[in-house]
Specification:
Elements: E1 3-8, H1 11-21, E2 25-30, E3 33-37, E4 45-49, E5 54-61, H2 65-77, E6 83-84, H3 87-93, E7 97-102, E8 108-113, E9 140-145, H4 148-158, E10 162-167, E11 173-177, E12 185-189, E13 194-201, H5 205-215, E14 222-229, E15 235-240, E16 246-251, E17 264-265, E18 271-274, H6 282-298, E19 300-301, H7 319-324, E20 336-337, H8 342-350
Length: 351
């Protein structure tokens, strides 16, 4: 995922949200457009002043001109109307070339290649470590869709997205990857089509915690409380954006072997802990809570996913943990369950 654009009448609110809370760098504020950087790209997030109030387009990067034309031919041969982006639009997006088409849910999709790099270093809008992007892309997008099967088939068959996993409770959703990020796109079954949330990932956990403190200064800003996901292991919270869709700010997302990944159903629910979702109906909030409590009672855990430079190793000080962590599941990088050794359990009772 290379870039995303929104259209909104609340442009000034978006400046404060994207820069002061999320930490993006505002680099352009002219002619009704606000452009934001997250890394060495000229832009990642674009806010256009206008009567709409939501996500306007999604830019997905391909390797080069041959891939772009191959996708254009494939889409056209399957009855999808494809438009070649004008030179003016390519310059506006800071890319070499692009094509434009729609998905079954009505989202505007832009495939592009050749993003332009900035000549000056990235300077975050607030003091923070920066964002995890590079070959993983900008982050991920999650759509509300009325027909999950149709939209999933489009991204799988027309664009080559690969299924990571799926859930059926407390809502139906499926997750797709295009690189080692666990998912760059997800679809949630809903009564209407539209953006559900966008996710960007920081390089340090404290960046998320400090943003959570900032967001809580406005009680109605939090859409989903701090928590950790089961499938991508992300520790995150969700904030309502000025356009009233959710923005997830996370840390510690897992990387997968995208070429040898086997998709499967996640029956544990969407989150290991936390992530109370204010936007869910009461009965589904209770269902999500019950799923988390069952995982807690079963001792379900997942290892942290860290990068060089954002962690130090703690010294072992717990024989119980030394025994528990030797379980085979721990080495696989997936969620696993702690079962206390019998001797450790006896020692705990004795003490």
């Amino acid at each position: 995922m290379g870039y995303i654009g929104v259209t909104t009448p609340a442009v000034e609110d978006w400046i404060r949200f994207a820069s002061d809370l999320l930490g993006m760098q505002l680099v352009d504020a002219t002619l009704g457009v606000r452009r934001f950087r997250m890394d060495d790209r000229r832009q990642r997030f674009i806010v256009n002043a206008g009567p709409g109030n939501g996500a306007a387009f999604y830019g997905w990067e391909v390797a080069g001109p041959a891939d772009l034309m191959a996708f254009a031919d494939h889409l056209s041969n399957n009855g999808i109307a494809v438009t070649r982006g004008s030179r003016a639009l390519a310059d506006e997006r800071f890319v070499k070339d692009l094509i434009i088409f729609g998905d079954p849910a009505g989202n505007r999709v832009e495939l592009f290649y050749g993003p332009e790099l900035a000549t000056d270093p990235f300077q975050p809008g607030r003091t923070m470590s920066g964002f995890r992007t590079g070959t993983l892309g900008m982050g991920h997008a999650v759509f509300n869709v009325t027909n999950v099967d149709e939209t999933a088939a489009f991204y799988r068959d027309m664009l080559g997205f690969k299924l990571s996993d799926y859930i059926t409770a407390p809502f139906r959703a499926c997750f797709f990857h295009v690189n080692p990020r666990h998912h760059s796109l997800a679809l949630i079954e809903s009564t209407q089509n539209g953006i559900h949330h966008l996710m960007i990932e920081t390089c340090m956990l404290d960046d998320v915690g400090q943003a959570y403190d900032l967001a809580q200064r406005q009680p109605d800003r939090i859409g989903t409380t701090l928590g950790r996901h089961v499938n991508d292991h992300m520790t995150s919270f969700y904030s309502w954006s000025p356009s009233r869709f959710l923005f997830e700010l996370g840390w510690g997302g897992r990387s997968i072997d995208s070429d040898n990944w086997t998709p499967h159903e996640r029956i544990e629910g969407p989150s290991l802990w936390g992530h109370d979702r204010a936007w869910l109906p009461d009965d589904r909030q209770q269902q999500a809570y019950d799923l988390r409590i069952r995982m807690a009672q079963a001792g379900v855990r997942a290892p942290l996913n860290v990068m060089d430079g954002n962690f130090t190793r703690a010294s072992d000080a717990c024989p119980w943990w030394n025994a528990a962590k030797t379980m085979p599941q721990a080495a696989s990088g997936s969620a696993w369950t702690i079962t206390p050794p019998a001797s450790a359990a006896r020692s705990a009772r004795d003490s």
